[in-house]
Amino acid sequence: MSKWLKEERGFSLVELLLAVAILGMVVAPLLGMFSTSAVNNAQASKYTIAFNLAREKMESIKNINYDSVETLEQEPVDGYPQFSHSVDVAVHEAADNDQVELKNVTVTVYWEERNYSLSSYMTRR
């Protein structure tokens, strides 16, 4: 029976510990990469929501009368409790011979400590 034990092939304790150490050195950075990736994915998702909310608000402003467009203070966004938005309107008066009045409309969406702004010019139709 002792001859059979000597011929037994397998891993020694040293080989096993070495394999576990190498595996640990490979897996530890991968776990860090996955957690960083999850955080970046969540931030990208919120940025996309902010972009879509700003675009939606800008489209709703474009559909109203030129004279009705006005500055709005920061207010919460319906359906998105962690987001709020504001509208800033800057009027550019017509030049001497130019009869075109411009309004520079800027929609800003806020979340956490970040914000996203979208600007557009409007004229009378």
* Number of distinct helices: 2
- Counted beta strands: 4
Q: Supply the helix-strand structural class.
A: alpha+beta
Q: How many independent structural domains?
A: 1
> Helix and strand succession?
HHEEEE
Name the poorly predicted regions: none
What percent strand?
25-35%
Shape: rod-shaped
The residue-averaged pLDDT reads: 88
Supply Rg.
30 Å
Strands in their spatial order, largest beta sheet = 1-2-3-4
Distance between the termini: 100 Å
Helical coverage, percent range: 40-55%
Largest sheet: 4 strands, antiparallel
- CATH-level-2 architecture: 2-Layer Sandwich
Topology:
Layout: H1 2-7, H2 13-62, E1 72-77, E2 80-92, E3 102-111, E4 114-123
Antiparallel strand pairs: 1-2, 2-3, 3-4
Report on this structure.
A hairpin with a 2-residue loop joins β1 (72-77) and β2. With 125 residues, the protein is an alpha+beta fold. The protein is built from 2 helices and 4 strands; from the N terminus they run ααββββ. It has helices at 2-7, 13-62, and strands spanning 72-77, 80-92, 102-111, 114-123. The protein has a 4-stranded antiparallel beta sheet with strand order 1-2-3-4, with helices on one face. It is rod-shaped and about 105 Å long. Helices cover 45% and strands 31% of the residues.
Main attributes of the structure:
single chain; 125 residues; alpha+beta; Pantoate--beta-alanine Ligase, Chain: A,domain 2; four-stranded antiparallel beta sheet; 4 strands
How would you summarize what this structure contains?
The protein has 125 residues and is an alpha+beta fold. 45% of the residues lie in helices and 31% in strands.
